[in-house]
Every structure is written in structure tokens, then in C-alpha cells.
Fold this sequence. Notes:
Distance between the termini: 49 Å
Radius of gyration: 19 Å
Helix content: over 70%
Oligomer: single chain
Amino acid sequence: MNPSPGTTSSSPAVGLVERLVEGRASLDAPADALAPIAAHLRGTGAWRRLVTGEAIGHAAHPFLTDLPIGFWTSAALLDLVGGPGAASASRRLVAAGLASAPAAALTGVAEYAGIGPRPRRVALVHGGLNILSLGLYAASWAARPRHRSRGVALGLAGLTVAGLSAYLGGHLAIGEKIGTTTAVAPSPDDVGVL
């Protein structure tokens, strides 16, 4: 059913995000504490254009997140249906996800520097979930040589957390338009640079 003009419709999941994350003022202090760090990492000039995606006319963060998520999803598929012969390939995919995650994280932090308080709360939780997922995947990678089943379980837990985080990232990109408009808006300090 379509909402009537002037009203909005939101799914139960969006309602949860709005109530539990966007509406939680208790997240403001840690979100505000991260803002200066994010602004420093975002930088200025050519560096800023690179990490925000201004250089390519599109936010860099969304497509860079596809790398770790893709590697980890592929590892999970091999873990579940690849058989014992797929163990080393799966571990290499986990490692590739870990290696590709810093670029996704850096570009996400660069976008964080330019957003308002309510979406910043969501971004903070999104980033926290990503850190948790990275920890689970690092533990998965380390456990796999001697305790494959433990490594697989840790990887599946990491993928679950990454999926929750990806939902929040999608909420930011689609629902809040973060990265779709903010990443390509030049700042006054960049005029005439590059």
C-alpha cells in the first residue's frame, strides 16, 4: 500500500533503526568524539578528493565495501559447500577480506566527517559493527589452521555482523543520502586545488 502524499512509510527494520540508533542521544558523545579524528583523516585537497570519491564523481566507500563483503561471502560459501579441499582457499578469501577492509574503513571515516548528528549516530554503530566483524574475521583466520570448525563458526558470526552493518550502511546511503550527495560537494578549502 502506497502512503498518501505528505506521509512517509517505513518498514519495521527502518523503524527499529530510527528508534534504537538515530533517536538515541546517548550516542552523541562518542559520535562527537570521533568527528575531529574523521575530519583529520578526511584531510584536504587531492587527498580529500581521493578518499571521499570526489575525484571520480561518486562516493568511494560503497564500492570499496563490496571487496571485503564479497571475499567473506565467498569464503562462507566455500566453508558451507566447498568440502574439506576448500579450506585453504576459504582462508585465503578471509585474508583478502581483511586486507581490503582498511580502504573501505578509511573512505567511510572520510564520509563521516561531513554528516549531521542523527546520521552520525547510525554511522558510529555501523563502524562499531565493522570493527567487531573485523575482529571475528581475524580470529577466524587465526583459528582455521588448527581448529577449522571454530574458524568457520567465527567467520559465519563475522558475516552476520557484517550483514547487520551493511544494512545500516544501506540506510545511510539510500535513506539518508550519505555519500550520494555529501561526498561530491567540494569544500571551500578545496577551491582551485587539483
